[in-house]
Amino acid sequence: MSVLAVDTVIVIRAPLAANRYGGQLRDWTTTTRTTVVGVSVQPAAATEDVRDRELLVNAYTLFTSRGQDIDLEATDRVEWNGLVLQVDGDPNRWPAPGGGVHHVEAALKLVTG
Q1: 35-55, pLDDT tens digit by residue?
Q2: 61, 82, 86, 103: which sits with the fewest CB atoms below 10 Å from its CB?
């Protein structure tokens, strides 16, 4: 494990459920929670929009250790350091020379306001 990969996160996944109109939505009242150790979560950027309301978006990047693949999807949320972050797009799985996954990088965001 990398000396930087000292964080533990919880991947939160919500199943799809039918809504009253026949479509499907994520049901965040019946989630599964999976603990993942040996990752690193680093701050990436922050933006602020105060035109119509006070809106702050903090960005983070999750990195796994070398050789570590995790079950993470764009529709998941990640709990880290007391925050619940949204996965922002598809996680990137970097290939290892000779096959497999070298590491995973995922953009995360926290939207407040």
Answers
A1: 999 999 999 987 877 677 788
A2: 82
